[in-house]
């Protein structure tokens, strides 16, 4: 019997350095809302999404390539950008064939860390593309790192729950010697019947932040499985669906 | 109504820098087995426990003060030391009135980090002294940081479960805007009916490491509430019961 590939979960970018990911597929997870919005835009036909870490860089690249600049700060469209972080802003009628330049502080930082550490492949994970991610990981038979973007390096509930959802679906195919992965799965099993209610009950900090901005609809979408079931892969600074 | 003090959980020493603990009581948590053994020794009448981060330092201090040197590496008593990390090695008949010099890599590192960051007070937490810790935290009405020692900075299940046990007992008294704390509580609620079984079921890495050394009895002790219900406080390099 062949040895199974390994699977680890990093609950925060501040923990990623503890793991050797040089031979791993890294799944970048930023459920509320970056990775959910990326899958939505690409599922609706966006040509590509370019993740950047600052508003100024977003404006610069947006001008260079005539892309759609998007990003928020404190729940509002950032000054100088044209659109926000909501998956509902990117229907097919608007985004098809276009390039989205998206500022995502936590997610972009994590992407660059994974690159710097020599990840074999980087893909985007969200509940909206859960099946695509799981099917890909099973098919590839490579080591996996589920990398949560967290919130300013603080562990958050929604990213952890998604890691748990992946673990619960694919664990038979992997060797999982990682308490974070098992903890994530246990939390997911506890909350899966009503993820929205679970976030609310556990007073998830991001839930509070976003509902304060009236974004319940966004949160519900971001917690719904397979609503935008594509697999964004990071290649040369761009997220595309191959 | 007065504002409640805050409570945070840091799941790994690698996350502690994210929090301002300068006005907080820090609870150092290293369930398997450092903080459990420390409470056992002090409950059995040890004069004090001096935590050190290396075997050489343990030997040096042990000679200076005629203390009992203790510590393990890979499940065996470390070369040059006299005793191990098991709480059962320190019954009253042996330890009463003596000084225990204990090497604990993860726990000592965390203690020093908390000191460097100006913690207001540092206490030792374990299931064995759960009630003492909770009663103290409620009585003090100060901000609290539940600081998990983890395993070489990787998040572990047993320390997280203890943080969750504390949260579940004292949450009404604190303002908890911290997903890690809520996650820990949820995990504890899931596992509390049988913590040993929960570690086993979730393949906790430390559970594997220790059962491989035949230490099931130690693990069961370390998961039992209030078996050594004292409150060790860190003062001038020493853990004592005031």
As a percent range, the share of strand residues of chain A is 15-25%
Return residue spans of chain A where pLDDT drops below 50 for at least 5 consecutive residues.
none
CATH topology of chain A: putative 2-phosphosulfolactate phosphatase
- CATH architecture classification of chain A: Alpha-Beta Complex
Task: Please give the radius of gyration of chain A in angstroms.
Answer: 17 Å
Helix content of chain A: 25-40%
Instruction: Name the overall outline of chain A.
Output: globular
Q: Strand pairing plus helix content of chain A: what structural class? A: alpha/beta
The CATH C-level name of chain A is Alpha Beta
Question: Assembly state here?
Answer: homodimer
**Helical stretch tally of chain A:** 10
User: What's the SSE pattern of chain A?
Assistant: EEHEHEEEHEHEHEHHHHHEE
Question: Which sheet architecture does the biggest sheet of chain A show?
Answer: 4 strands, parallel
Instruction: Tell me the span between the first and last alpha carbons of chain A.
Output: 32 Å
Strand tally of chain A is 11
Order the strands across the largest sheet of chain A as they lie in space.
1-9-2-8
Total tally of structural domains of chain A: 1
Q: Report the CATH superfamily of chain A.
A: ComB-like
**Which chains share the greatest interface?**
A-B, 31 and 30 residues
Rounded mean pLDDT score of chain A: 95
